[in-house]
Each structure stands twice: as structure tokens, then as C-alpha cells.
């Protein structure tokens, strides 16, 4: 993520509820996080090498400084989070992004199922032949 020295970028502000837990590591730069709270904002800062978690149904505003890189992965019922993306695409009359979301998700599912079947086949083939491939 190179933002051309534009200073601070806000990339998530009350982004809705997501049915997944996300863990991120700051690879370069700084990330600031403001908690959405009726009692006022709670600011946290994360430097290079720091990890942070965005839990299910939590709401934060994230700010990234220029030249910030963050690696994230998620776990949970991620397909349910697609409901928010799909309704937003339909509300904004953007069927292309909705079609792309469906294509990318379907492609990922088929790839994972193919890998699972291949690994299962190789496991039982190795047991049947009494040799590991």
C-alpha cells in the first residue's frame, strides 16, 4: 500500500458487522485504531512487528500512515460477511462488483475443495500402496 505521501488514510470507519475474526501484523509504517464507543474514543497505536485483532462485531476506525503495509488473515463465517458487500453493491447499482465477489468466492471454494480431494486421494492411495508419495 503506497499512498504517495498523502499523510494519514482512514480505511475503515464503522464498516459494519463481519462474521469473522481478523488478525493483522504491521509490516511497515504505523497503524492507529480508534474504538467506537459511547464513552468516547479509545486510541491504540501499532508499530512495525505489532499484531492486532479485529473481532466479530467490533467497530473501529483505522488510520494508516504513508507507506504502511499490513498483512491480515481472517477466520470465521466469512461468507456471511458477503451479505454486507452484496447489499452495498445492489444499493449502489454496482452489479459488476457483486458478480466479481461471487466469482472470486466461488473460485476460492472450488480451489479449496479440489485441494482437499487431492490430499484425501493421495492419503488413501499411500495407505493402499503402503508407500508415501
UniProtKB/TrEMBL annotation:
<dbReference type="InterPro" id="IPR006716">
    <property type="entry name" value="ERG2_sigma1_rcpt-like"/>
</dbReference>
<comment type="similarity">
    <text>Belongs to the ERG2 family.</text>
</comment>
<protein>
    <submittedName>
        <fullName>Sigma non-opioid intracellular receptor 1</fullName>
    </submittedName>
</protein>
<dbReference type="Pfam" id="PF04622">
    <property type="entry name" value="ERG2_Sigma1R"/>
</dbReference>
Amino acid at each position: 500500500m503506497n499512498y504517495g505521501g498523502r499523510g494519514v488514510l482512514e480505511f475503515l470507519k464503522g464498516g459494519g458487522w463481519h462474521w469473522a475474526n481478523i488478525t493483522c501484523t504491521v509490516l511497515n509504517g504505523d497503524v492507529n485504531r480508534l474504538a467506537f464507543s459511547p464513552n468516547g474514543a479509545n486510541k491504540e497505536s501499532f508499530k512495525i512487528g505489532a499484531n492486532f485483532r479485529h473481532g466479530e462485531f467490533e467497530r473501529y476506525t483505522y488510520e494508516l500512515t504513508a507507506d504502511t503495509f499490513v498483512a491480515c488473515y481472517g477466520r470465521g463465517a466469512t461468507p456471511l460477511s458477503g451479505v454486507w458487500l452484496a447489499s452495498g453493491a445492489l444499493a449502489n447499482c454496482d452489479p459488476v462488483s457483486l458478480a466479481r465477489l461471487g466469482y472470486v468466492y466461488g473460485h476460492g471454494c472450488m480451489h479449496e475443495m479440489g485441494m482437499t480431494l487431492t490430499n484425501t486421494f493421495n492419503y488413501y492411495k499411500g495407505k493402499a500402496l503402503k508407500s508415501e508419495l
